[in-house]
Design brief:
Strand order of the largest sheet of chain B: 1-2-3-4
Number of helices of chain A: 10
Shape of chain A: globular
Number of strands of chain B: 4
Strand order of the largest sheet of chain A: 6-7-8-3-9-10
Order of helices and strands of chain A: EEEHEEHEHHHEHEHEEHHH
Oligomer: heterodimer
Largest sheet of chain B: 4 strands, mixed
Order of helices and strands of chain B: EEHEHEHHHHHHHHHH
Number of domains of chain B: 2
Strand content of chain B: 5-15%
Structural class of chain B: alpha/beta
Distance between the termini of chain A: 58 Å
Largest sheet of chain A: 6 strands, mixed
Shape of chain B: elongated
Radius of gyration of chain B: 35 Å
Helix content of chain B: over 70%
Chain lengths: 264, 368
């Protein structure tokens, strides 16, 4: 690849308790691209985002953002780096006691000393970008799931971050909301010159907008490449995942003792 | 399908070494069938005839296959549909094995495990206190960075709104104290000493302690629940992702709010407690308000009042830090919010009483 990497992960090893989540893996997140990270539920996709955001420390390996190794940063430096990262959570993570407007204004008020008029203009601009300028006075509890995610997206881009990480943005959304969110991700990425990491298990949707994709399973990267390469990847595990076959290299049954034994 | 057939009685009988089953072998009849099977002992190697079974679900199939296993019976005349279900259930129960013994650890193991857990919790709590102190030191350099809006709103919800309940309960405690003590004093004709007693007990002990315990139950639990829900909603993750330390935004304002509110609430509690005692002194011992207050002024030193109030910021610190710490420990589910809220209240009250005992020792050591 010609473009340089914004995030460079090398030899990442991470355990949760005794369970190996990542076993010596490398990721490259190219500047300006949408990178999809896919895999079965429970394989640590969200964990990867937390590792990049410095909320978890790897047991081994480097995670570099703009050349700065995240695990080695001090608390204050870490918060500095995080200001350049927007993050969209599975449950939106909107502040339930603030209105939509205040939610989007929150990072601006926290990190800048802009005048109230400027903040107002910026917030309305971001809300306009996600199509919810009219919903500014609603409380998060009054929003539908899809709208809440769009507000969270507006908040995530409030500070014009370089990198934005989406944690399962499509889960539990109806087809229309899915389409809207996907389009937004794509449009924002291209218009604002962002770099996006999209964690998802909606294969078709994620592949439709991604520039590059990783498929992780059992702590390893089992497939990577452009969407075209992924679709034609011959590995059986990759095929099981992208075609949604119930049983294969990833078993249908969670590891358990003998069924007969359990029934007695 | 003819629905009349479902009215057929669900039962079984034994004819010529054949167990003839009929009716609905489903979850709603399973208990009744099972009870009948438990009462009787069937001969071995019988046949089980299923031609009259109108409905069979997985519970019925499991029952049948257990019976079949127990008496080495064979199944016959089942419809295709039922036979498939029986095969599926039978396949999974066929190879019966001895029940694995539940692992029971000995006392030593459990003591060790619990000690390690307690050690881990203490370590985490100390880390939390450490982070808190560092943030606190930073804010003393720049008091402007303190979130006054948050502090004021917490004073309102955690302090101002607690005024009625604290007033009422303190008043009642004052009445009860004066009543109980009044009976004793009357027998000695030492009525007037009720003033010393009520004044000392309320100002020095009951006012601050009662207030702290009520606030631990009311506001400490609210802190845990609020932060816990924020944790579940990923609001706290969102804060961290925005580069804002939750301690600074959420914990510190709550602690400051309580440190300001609790002494004030204790004064409020003192007033109502003494008022309760005064009312009881008048109605029971015949000491009118003027005499009561006059004597109160003479016998109760300012020191007593001050000793009571000195303790309150420490209580506030205990309540708020435990409440917030437990809130941040929440993970995953609503069940965890409930468990940690209980824990936060119990721990806070425990440590308030321990601290109060500590103060008593300290004060007697200092001779005040």
């Amino acid at each position: 690849m010609v473009t340089e990497s914004l995030v460079k992960i090398r030899n990442l090893t991470f355990y949760r308790g005794n369970r190996l989540i990542y076993d010596n893996v490398d990721f490259d997140i190219q500047r300006g691209k949408i990178i999809a990270v896919m895999g079965p539920s429970g394989t640590g996709k969200t964990t990867l985002l937390r590792l990049i955001g410095g909320q978890l420390r790897p047991h081994q390996g480097q995670i570099e953002i703009n050349g700065r190794n995240v695990p080695a940063l001090k608390q204050t430096e870490l918060y500095e780096v995080r200001r350049n990262i927007g993050m969209l959570f599975q449950n939106s993570g909107l502040f339930t006691n603030l209105t939509v407007f205040e939610n989007v204004a929150f990072p601006l008020r926290e990190h800048t000393h802009l005048s109230e008029a400027m903040i107002r203009d910026l917030v309305l601009m971001k809300l306009q970008a996600v199509g919810l300028r009219g919903a500014r006075d609603l409380m998060p509890s009054e929003l539908s799931g899809g709208m809440a995610r769009r507000v969270a997206l507006a908040r995530a881009i409030a500070l014009d971050p370089q990198l934005i990480m989406y944690d399962e943005p499509l889960t539990g959304q109806d087809p229309i909301a899915k389409g809207v969110i996907l389009q937004l991700i794509k449009r924002l990425n291209d218009a604002l010159g962002l770099t996006s990491i999209l964690v998802s298990h909606d294969v078709a949707e994620a592949l439709s907008i991604a520039d590059y994709a990783y498929i992780v399973s059992d702590g390893k990267i089992i497939g990577k490449g452009t969407p075209e390469e992924i679709r034609h990847n011959a590995a059986s595990a990759v095929q099981q995942f992208i075609q949604g076959l119930p049983d294969g290299i990833v078993p249908f049954h969670y590891p358990a003792k003998d069924y007969a034994e359990d029934l007695l | 399908m003819n629905h009349k057939s479902t009215d057929q009685k669900t039962d079984w009988q034994l004819e010529d070494n054949t167990l003839i089953c009929q009716g609905n072998w489903d979850i709603s009849h399973s208990q009744q069938l099972n009870q009948r099977f438990n009462k009787v002992d069937l001969p071995a190697k019988i046949a089980i005839d299923g031609s009259k079974i109108t409905k069979l679900d997985s519970v019925g199939a499991l029952l049948l296959s257990k019976i079949a296993n127990k008496y080495q019976a064979r199944l016959q005349n089942f419809s295709n549909e039922h036979a498939t279900l029986l095969k599926l259930v039978g396949k999974n129960t066929a190879e019966e094995q001895a029940l694995a013994k539940p692992t029971q650890h000995n006392l030593l193991y459990r003591i060790g495990k619990n000690s390690l857990e307690a050690y881990e919790h203490t370590k985490q709590f100390l880390a939390f206190i450490g982070e808190l102190v560092i943030t606190l030191i930073k804010t003393t350099y720049s008091p402007g960075a303190l979130r006054w809006r948050e502090i004021v709103s917490n004073i309102e919800s955690g302090g101002y709104k607690a005024l009625p309940i604290i007033g009422l309960l303190s008043f009642l405690i004052g009445v009860v104290l004066a009543y109980q003590m009044g009976i004793q004093l009357q027998t000695y004709g030492a009525n007037v000493f009720i003033v010393n007693f009520v004044g000392l007990a309320i100002l020095r002990e009951f006012g601050p302690l009662l207030t702290a315990i009520i606030i631990a139950g009311r506001t400490g639990s609210a802190f845990t629940a609020q932060l816990g829900m924020m944790q579940i909603n990923e609001e706290i993750d969102a804060l961290r992702a925005m580069g804002i330390a939750p301690i600074e935004l959420l914990v510190l304002p709550r602690i400051f709010a309580l440190i300001i509110a609790l002494p004030l609430l204790s004064v409020w509690s003192d007033i109502f407690g003494v008022l309760g005692g005064m009312l009881m002194a008048k109605s029971m011992l015949g000491i009118n308000f003027y005499d009561f207050l006059k004597r109160f002024q003479d016998v109760i030193q300012l020191k007593t009042y001050a000793i009571g109030l000195v303790k309150t910021p420490v209580f506030a610190l205990i309540i708020a830090s435990i409440g917030c710490y437990q809130g941040l420990q929440v993970s995953g589910s609503a069940e965890s919010v409930g468990r940690l809220t209980t824990k936060s209240v119990v721990q806070a009250i425990f440590f308030i009483i321990v601290a109060d005992a500590g103060f008593s020792i300290l004060f007697s050591w200092l001779g005040i």
